[in-house]
Amino acid sequence: MTGMIATLAGEYLQGSFRGIPFVVVGSGGNNGRNFQIHRYPFRDQVWAEDLGRAPRSYRVRAFLIGPECLAQRQLLAMAAEVEGVGTLVHPSIGARQCALTRFEWYERDGVMGIVDIEMELVESRDWLGSTITLALDAAIGLAAITFGAAAASDYGSDTLAPYAYGKSVLGAGRAVASLWGAGAVTAIRSPAAFSSALATLPGNLGRYVGGNGATVDQTATETSVLQDLTANGQLVSANVAALADVADATALATAILAVPESVRSAVADPAGQIAVLSPLASCSVSVLASSAPIGGAIATAQAATATLCRQAALLSLSRACADWQPSSAEDAQAMRVKLGTLLDDEATTAADNGNDASFQALRALRAQVLQDLADRGARLPDMVTVTRNAPLPALVLAQQLYANGSRAPDLIRRADPIHPAFMPTSFEALSS
Predict the structure, then answer these.
(1) Which of 3, 25, 182, 368 stands the most exposed, by the fewest C-beta atoms within 10 Å?
(2) Domain 2-129: which CATH class?
């Protein structure tokens, strides 16, 4: 009997609590929301007040086996009596900081060398969820670095022969980059950049400032924000001006990659970063057909430079999406479609041009970005259509829909009414 149990022990996964191991037989848990139900006289409906996420609890059935099982049982019993929370390592749910609320052990009748145990735990901290998020962010950063290096390398290979013809060909490449860079100067001076810069200001800034992922600076003022934006705009202009003075393909590639990154760094709000960078992802040139060798070299240099400009913008867009916080599952899905299409089209272009390194790096970056957006979108509420017979104030609608008047600014931003006291009779809002 003991030999059979020892054989089965090798087929089960191992777990531990406070570093003391055991063999997991089965497990379960509870998840949900913490609702306080309010009942009122002569009303058929109740008000379910959402007090936040309910505690996550876990039930673990396990056993200890072998000549040390009694010592292990004693160690677990002592661990159950230790003050504070401990680390639970489970084979399927990962690592959690948990409070052990119940620990029971049983010795089987007539069987030596085995102890059955049951535990109930309440989660105090989820380490695995934060680990996954950090891993996705790190994967996007690593994929972006790889793609940037591959794009610059392929650009140098594609333009090595054309730029050997002299300054006229290099000038054609610099002209394409400068024309594209002018769009970056326009973007950093646009109203979208100014409104996004205000996202760092503390307080309720109304419907015109998004702040999707921006870090709020409690010491920031309107003057300091505008001064920072002006300084960053000057940096962007300097980087664009440098495009016209580079001396070779390597320097031009480095300067092109620096332009959209300086634009992204100048805008605090990730949603604003995406808005100002999106136009830079489009760059095309009209190439004149020529049978002369130098004419063909100019055409090749112009096409390769335009490709690198688009890739540089997509690189910064991917980094901005890693910081962007979608407000609904539909927002995340729309961004997945938009950015996924841009990255896929550019990967196809890289494959057609024979740039294998850029193609593989683009596909890897696309996979990481889409996985990140899908993971965050799956945790967000959906959009629903709210319909009322007559215009109502935003505060009333927030109380009716969410039993929370502080949600009124979100409704105002989504419905965009002429006045918050007269909301449209039909508009889109979050389901919860």
Answers:
(1) 3
(2) mainly beta
